[in-house]
C-alpha cells in the first residue's frame, strides 16, 4: 500500500510540473485554457520514460487529495485546476467569497507578507482556502506554520475580484496587508 501511495505521489508531482509549469518538459503543448488531449499526454509521458495507462492517470486524478487536476466531461482532455506559472486562461467566473478566507504559509515569510501583502509570485493568483485545516496543510509544506485570516468580505466590497476553482481553491490577484490578520496556531 505504501509503495502504491509513493508511486501515486511521484506521478501527481510530475503531472503538476507538466500541466502547471513546464509542459515542454515532455514535448507537450497546452491550449489557451490549459487543456491537453488525454491520449496526447499519455503518449508524451511514455516518450519521456514516464509511462502511465489511462486507468493509472484516472487514479492519480481521482486520488489527488487537493484535486489539482480535472478531466473534461467526456474524459478526452485533462488540465490542472489552478496554480499555473505559464500563461493560461482558466475561464473562471468571478464569485462572491465567504466572509473570511485563510492562507497557510511559513513563519519565515511573515515579515515580507506584513510589509507587502500576499502576492501571486510566479503564479496567476494568490491561493486561499475556505478552511483553516486546508490552509494549515498547505502552510506546513513550507516550514513552521503561520495561518493568516483574510477579510474577504471587505476585500470584495472594496472591489477586489475572487474566483473559485473547480477544486474549491479561492483565487485573487493579491491580498493587501490591510485585509490580513495572523491567527494563533
In short:
By secondary structure, the protein is of the alpha+beta class.
Provide an overview of this structure:
This protein folds into 2 domains: 2-80, Arc Repressor Mutant, subunit A (Orthogonal Bundle); 100-183, ADP-ribosylation fold (Alpha-Beta Barrel). It has a 3-stranded antiparallel beta sheet. Strands 4-7-11 form a 3-stranded antiparallel beta sheet. Helix 1 (2-21) packs across helix 3 (54-63). The mean pLDDT is 92. It has 6 helices and 11 strands. The chain has helices spanning 2-21, 38-47, 54-63, 110-116, 132-140, 152-157; strands at 36-37, 69-71, 77-80, 100-106, 118-119, 126-128, 145-151, 163-164, 170-172, 174-175, 180-183. By secondary structure, it is α+β, with helices and mostly antiparallel strands. It starts with a helix and ends with a strand. Strand 2 (69-71) and strand 3 (77-80) form a beta hairpin. The relative contact order is 0.15.
Tell how many strands the DSSP assignment holds.
Answer: 11
Indicate the multimeric state. Answer: single chain
Report the structural category: alpha+beta
The major pleated sheet works out as: 3 strands, antiparallel
What fraction, in percent, of the residue positions are helical? 25-40%
First-residue to last-residue Cα separation? 32 Å
| Molecular shape | globular
Amino acid at each position: 500500500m505504501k509503495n502504491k501511495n509513493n508511486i501515486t505521489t511521484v506521478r501527481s508531482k510530475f503531472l503538476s510540473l507538466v500541466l502547471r509549469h513546464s509542459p515542454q518538459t515532455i514535448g507537450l503543448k497546452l491550449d489557451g485554457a490549459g487543456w491537453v488531449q488525454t491520449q496526447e499526454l499519455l503518449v508524451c509521458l511514455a516518450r519521456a520514460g514516464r509511462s502511465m495507462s489511462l486507468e493509472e492517470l484516472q487514479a492519480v486524478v481521482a486520488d489527488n487529495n487537493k484535486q489539482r487536476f480535472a478531466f473534461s466531461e467526456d474524459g478526452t482532455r485533462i488540465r490542472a485546476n489552478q496554480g499555473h506559472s505559464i500563461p493560461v486562461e482558466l475561464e473562471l467566473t468571478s464569485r462572491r467569497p465567504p466572509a473570511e478566507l485563510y492562507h497557510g504559509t511559513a513563519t519565515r515569510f511573515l515579515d515580507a507578507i506584513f510589509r507587502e501583502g500576499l502576492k501571486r509570485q510566479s503564479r496567476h493568483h494568490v491561493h486561499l482556502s475556505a478552511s483553516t485545516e486546508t490552509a494549515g496543510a498547505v502552510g506546513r509544506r513550507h516550514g513552521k506554520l503561520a495561518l493568516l485570516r483574510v477579510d474577504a468580505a471587505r476585500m470584495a466590497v472594496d472591489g477586489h475580484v475572487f474566483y473559485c476553482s473547480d477544486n474549491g481553491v479561492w483565487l485573487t490577484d493579491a491580498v493587501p496587508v490591510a485585509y490580513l490578520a495572523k491567527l494563533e496556531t
